[in-house]
Amino acid sequence: MPHDNEDEFVPQATANEIWAGAAYDTLRETAKSYNRLITYKEIAQTVQSTSGITTKQRLHYWIGPVLETVAAEASSRGEPPLTALCVHENGTMGDSYLRAPKSVPHEDDVDVERLAAEHRLLCYREYATDLPDHRGFATLTPQVAQKRARLRKSDPPNRPMCPIHHCEISATGLCGSCD
User: Fold this and answer.
1) pTM value?
2) Is residue 109 within a helix (H) or strand (E), and if so which, with residue range?
3) What is the three-class DSSP state of 148?
4) By the 8 A CB rule, do 122 and 80 touch?
5) Which letter does DSSP use for residue 39 in this model?
6) Full residue range of the structural domain in which residue 157 is found
7) Which of 28, 32, 37, 35 has its CA nearest to residue 136?
8) Does residue 164 sit within a domain?
9) Are residues 88 and 119 in the same domain?
């Protein structure tokens, strides 16, 4: 249950509205620095601190509706999807990002991490004061980029298969079982 500085109960809807305003401002500030991100935990601490309304509820119970309000507000203003700047501690977005309102449409089977990277670039291009001359690149978070690089290294090469014997074709381009 949310409470204000005098330990008075604040209705959840009221708290969410106030937190959304603080989150919106925080995300706009975050977007001023190219490739800067903020974690869910950091934004939760910031909005509670700046608003004076706190809660002991677990983060995942209340931060989603707050960020959905921010996403809807940014979309209604024709602004880029600011919520793309907010990530989990492990640098991922999570599938819930696909359900949030956005000013940029997407396909249903899209790579959520790549989509968020593209949305972050839109935010940086709109607000960053330190954008590179080349106008920046859509980048995955460092954690996601590292994980994907490790997975690529561990994937065996995709070699052609013999359509008759269903075995790998040798480097010569011939199947060892075919005549």
Assistant:
1) 0.81
2) none
3) helix
4) yes
5) E
6) 146-179
7) 35
8) yes
9) yes
Total structural domains in the chain? 2
Task: Identify the residue whose tokens are 């204000």.
Answer: 4
* 122-148 residue pLDDT tens: 999 999 999 999 999 999 999 999 999
How many Å apart are CA 120 and CA 83, to the nearest integer? Answer: 8
Quick check: is 3 in a domain?
Answer: no
Give phi and psi for 150, each to the nearest 5: -65, -40
Domain-located, residue 32: yes
- Give the C-alpha separation, 86 to 112, whole Å: 13
Asked if residues 32 and 129 have their Cβ atoms less than 8 Å apart, the reply is: yes
Per-residue CA distances from 22 to 17, 19, 36, 83 (Å): 9, 5, 18, 13
Assigned token pair, 24:
């919106």
Whole-angstrom distance, CA of residue 52 vs CA of residue 59: 16
**pLDDT digit string, tens, across residues 115-127:** 999 999 999 999 9
Query: How would you classify the pairing of strands 86-87 and 38-39?
Result: parallel
The closest of 39, 91, 89, 92 to 67, measured between CA atoms, is 39
Residues 130 and 173 in one domain: no
Could you tell me if 73 and 88 lie in one domain? yes
